[in-house]
Amino acid sequence: MNSASDKEHRFLDLISCNRQLICKVCYMYATDSNHFNDLYQETLINIWQGLDRFRGDSQVSTWIYRTAINSCITFYRRNKVMSNASSIDELTELIDDRSDKPSQLKEMYRLVSCLNKMDKALVLLWLDEKTYDEISDITGISRNNVASRLRRIKAKLVKMSQE
Questions:
Q1: More reliable by pLDDT, 133 or 86
Q2: Higher pLDDT, 91 or 72
Q3: Per-domain boundaries in the chain
Q4: CA distances to 60, 75, 130, 141 from 45, in Å
Q5: pLDDT over 70 at 105, yes or no
Q6: How confident is the model over 40-59, as pLDDT tens digits?
Q7: For 141, which of 6, 14, 118, 131 is 20 to 30 Å away at the CA?
Q8: CA 159 – CA 121 distance, rounded (Å)
């Protein structure tokens, strides 16, 4: 097997195993289904381009998270995309939501979509039950900063939900 087909095989396996993770990150940053598709493609391109440089110093999921979050934030900056929480209905169809309470999940995503880019990333990772240390590794901010920012974000989300 040549190196190009080996890379393609590794890439397809990686995407197959981590599709939900990639979709979740892109979903949190997308403003509509077209934007979601753009973010998803941008993330896949960046994973492909970085695959040969991934040394295995971290878990694959940590690297995928970091790549997906950075891809979305970079896409935002480059294209100056504005958040549009009203498109949440269209986006909800794009991911497999296994919640017994889809209206509560939809409301949570609506509230989270109003947060800034880094706060979205922190909440997403916390909702995925990542430890503060894992979140710190993925985002590059200190563990203590993760803890304090998450406390403030949670309080902000509670306040937003009561308004």
A1: 133
A2: 72
A3: 3-162
A4: 16, 12, 25, 25
A5: no
A6: 999 999 999 999 998 888 88
A7: 14
A8: 19
Position 77, amino acid: R
- pTM equals 0.65
Sign of CA dihedral 106, 112, 114, 118: negative
SS (H, E, C) the chain: CCHHHHHHHHHHHHHHHHHHHHHHHHHHHCCCHHHHHHHHHHHHHHHHHHHHHCCCCCCHHHHHHHHHHHHHHHHHHHHCCCCCHHHHHHHHCCCCCCCCCHHHHHHHHHHHHCCCHHHHHHHHHHHCCCCHHHHHHHHCCCHHHHHHHHHHHHHHHHHHHHC
- 133 Cα distance to chain centroid: 17
